[in-house]
């Protein structure tokens, strides 16, 4: 009897299991639009080839007495048409199933993932390899690679969002056909349970060369790894009552999605004109949109956002497992200048010192020490879930929105020429947007558990007022909207 490989969930993944709910099943979606309707037979062949490279994606989720773990399986993914609403639940405690799905709808190749398996960067690697393999099968005459190299006649490459090396770029002398994304790789354990000096030397060497891709879109603005002027140990600002968005829940808890598409260069130019990174500029726009659509913030004039940081840009890793941290930024209206430029610069000033390797390492080491406390390790898993659920609930009360930017994606030819927009969104317990850019088009996808979309309308108006051409598409969620679509 063969023993199957397994690995405990990392500290970032456990929270997704504890915090999932009917309204927010902790599923996210990344899509790529090709230039013709998807051929499901070719997409299945591309998926079979890509799947072999990602042993992590073979895993199923199991539960023990004290913790959850991922276990290797012999299951095979099957491409299906898109028939469920977006970000429908994937993980079911009583079933042994894969933690991702691949679908197609017209020209879209769609990947949905349970967040406990992988983060946005890891999922983007998978989707980029899948789309590249598909295009090479669809247009074999355009494949520039020699036969027999890498995936479906081409090298194993990923988007330029971090240190994702192809098999034939490896310098470890390993087999070029060896899967690049193993199940057991744990970057949190590798870096933040080691001696501090070892982590510092490895991370410092890498961060000097790595670009902060998750935070910007081909961004020429200041890097968040740079210290702000007059840096030092900043005083912790007092916590204020945070404005929380309310609304009408969607009828069956499905996620409301609204997609905005716009020229990336035009929005990036606006951010650069304010001297800030794109993510902070978009976050400031989001805050203004919430304020304008709220009809007045009342006494709760502080808006706060959670922003994920891709740790691979500072700590080298090719693991597709979760490897990120979050940074919280806020703005209180009525305490200084409230124009868009001032808000974005204030957010940037808060964000940059929190997103340095040293600051992130200190924070993550504290989390891991807490996670590995002997008393907590012997607590039964259901009780651990309850503790994490309460911690997550408390954190949520201190947030108004969440934002995420996967950055600019570049694919190898012929996929680069055949893939247009790429889109990213998540199931949401609060209003959120996710951004990414490809082929010169920036997509900002808003998700919310509420029917109302006033904040999205204001966001688009703020951009169009600044000369940006914005295209809007919305998914139908109410009975009336669905009936109109079917009629």
UniProtKB/TrEMBL annotation:
Regions of compositional bias (Basic residues) in chain numbering: 233-246
Superkingdom to which the source organism belongs: Bacteria
Chain segments carrying region Disordered: 145-182, 217-249
Protein name from the UniProt record: Alcohol acetyltransferase
